Amino acid sequence: MPVKKLPLLVANWKMNLSVKESVVLSKNLCEAYIKNKFQERLSLVLCPTFPALSGVAEVIKKKNVSLGAQDVFWKTQGPYTGEVSPRVLVEIGVEYVIIGHSERRQFLKETDAMIQQKLLASLSEGLKPILCVGETFAERQSGQKDLVIARQVSSALNGVVLTPESHLIIAYEPVWVIGSGQAVEPREASETALVIYQTMLDFFSPKALKSQVSIIYGGSVDPTNIHYFVGQGLLSGVLVGGASLEDKRFINLMNKL
Ligand code: PEP
Predict the structure, then answer these.
(1) Which of 15, 46, 71, 221 to mutate to test the pocket of ligand 1 (most atoms within 8 A of CB)?
(2) Which ligand 1 atom sits nearest the alpha carbon of residue 132?
(3) pLDDT at 257
(4) Rounded to the nearest whole angstrom, what is the distance from the C-alpha of residue 219 to the centroid of ligand 1?
(5) Which atom, in ligand 1's list, is nearest to the CA of 221?
(6) Ligand 1 centroid vs 152 CA: distance in angstroms?
């Protein structure tokens, strides 16, 4: 399947909205998406909370909008109380899955090894993983940024083999700017995208990277700065948290692409 060349816009609603609010927001966004012909300019992925996935799946059906989950487990079936199988996500229409978000690394103590297992399981079920990597402020201040990014990417990709159908997205999300209202300098995001690309060259051919892998940026993206992060160097999309929670603001953001 040819890879979509349009900029990728991923809305991560985290645990901020109820099921009802997720459904209403997705309806409003779909309406604007169709009315403004946004599908000609961007690929939209909505990532609601787990219990809202089916409701949002219903709303976006046949509207050229994709569904994403915010997490997944690394086994497809079995005695894993409270976990969600990648196979079940596919069953309800999920196409993308966020893996290794810094909030999960921080609050749920997700390790590089767990993230690698989630990535493998998701790819083998045909999901498109959105692997989040990023340094903390302390790591940046101590000059560790590139090392941290390279380590996170390499450990997640350990053992990953892309089939011709696989798609993989790496989201560079500096932990210290998430939710801060202040994105990183676009140049810094581009330079880090290059570190990610170079690290991936140890795993995939340049041809596979070009057609099956995308690098996107996340961290305080809003309507005023989105244009700095899309189509700049190796960056081909954005992951948006706070600015995706309110319809008018997010539609404004889509308008800027
Ligand atoms: C995120 O948490 O993935 C994110 C990008 O959040 P925000 O846009 O609010 O910084």
Answers:
(1) 221
(2) 3
(3) 87
(4) 5
(5) 8
(6) 18
pLDDT in tens, 94-132: 999 999 999 999 999 999 999 999 999 999 999 999 999
Domain assignment present for residue 78? The answer is yes
Q: What percent of the chain clears pLDDT 70, i.e. is strictly above it?
A: 98
Sign of CA dihedral 188, 194, 196, 199: negative
Instruction: Tell me if 2 is assigned to some domain.
Output: no
Q: What is the pTM of this model?
A: 0.97
The tens digit of pLDDT for each residue in 200-240 reads: 999 999 999 999 999 999 999 999 999 999 987 899 999 99
Asked if residue 3 is part of any domain, the answer here is no
Token pair of 166 as six digits: 């696989």
CATH of the domain at 193: 3.20.20.70
Query: In degrees rounded to 5, what are phi and psi of residue 223?
Result: -60, -25
Residue ranges lining ligand 1, Cβ < 6 Å: 12, 173, 178-179, 218-221, 239-243
Amino acid at 38: F
Percent of the chain with pLDDT over 90: 96
Grouping H, G, I as helix, E, B as strand and the rest as coil, residue 131 is strand
Residue nearest to atom 6 of ligand 1 (CA): 241
CA distance 241 to 221: 8
Range of the domain at 37: 8-255
Query: Residue whose CA is closest, atom 4 of ligand 1?
Result: 241
- Total number of domains in the chain: 1
Q: Whose CA is closest to 218, among 252, 192, 194?
A: 192
Is 101 labeled as catalytic in the residue annotation? yes
Let me know if residue 218 belongs to a domain: yes
- Does 4 or 32 have the greater pLDDT score? 32
